[in-house]
Amino acid sequence: xGAAHSNFETxxxxxxxxxxSYVLSRVGDSEIxxxxxxxxxxxxxxxxxxxxxxxxxxxxxxxxxxxxxxxRKQGKPLPQLGEPVQEESxxxxxCLKPMMARLSKQEQEILELTQIQQYCLRDxxxxxxxxxxxxxxxxxxxxxxxAKRLFSCCEYERNAKGxxxxxxxxxxxxx
Length: 175
What we know:
CATH class of the largest domain: Mainly Alpha
Helix content: 55-70%
Largest sheet: 2 strands, antiparallel
Shape: globular
Structural class: mainly alpha
Number of domains: 2
CATH architecture of the largest domain: Orthogonal Bundle
Oligomer: single chain
Radius of gyration: 18 Å
CATH topology of the largest domain: Arc Repressor Mutant, subunit A
Number of helices: 7
Strand content: 5-15%
Distance between the termini: 51 Å
């Protein structure tokens, strides 16, 4: 068994359930979901050697492209951006929700679409009918505004990988 094959198996074991749930939440049909996931798995396996981006984002981009290809071949409209996606649970989720609620509607929307729902900026820009550079600027400002709020009120615990594993709300903002 080659290194690429074992890397694929490890990645697939880690992300398959999450990606499958994501696809099902978009298409609403388990048979369509299975077809899309088969195509996505093949694409991931055959292009794993080219992966240079953040792994999770790269996987979501492949799955989204597989969905787009499926719907294009069927002559059906794509599922719309902004439809609910099952959120993952992270230690800061409860703290981020009230902080995000204090941002402008535009900042909330771009963070939701790019950071939570994992849409690429190009898709968001097209859907919102704005230039890509405008979307990039909006995302930068939204992240900066959220970070300013976040780092001014909380103390963070990190694991050896640098991932946030817990936090202390210094100002009572998160409650």
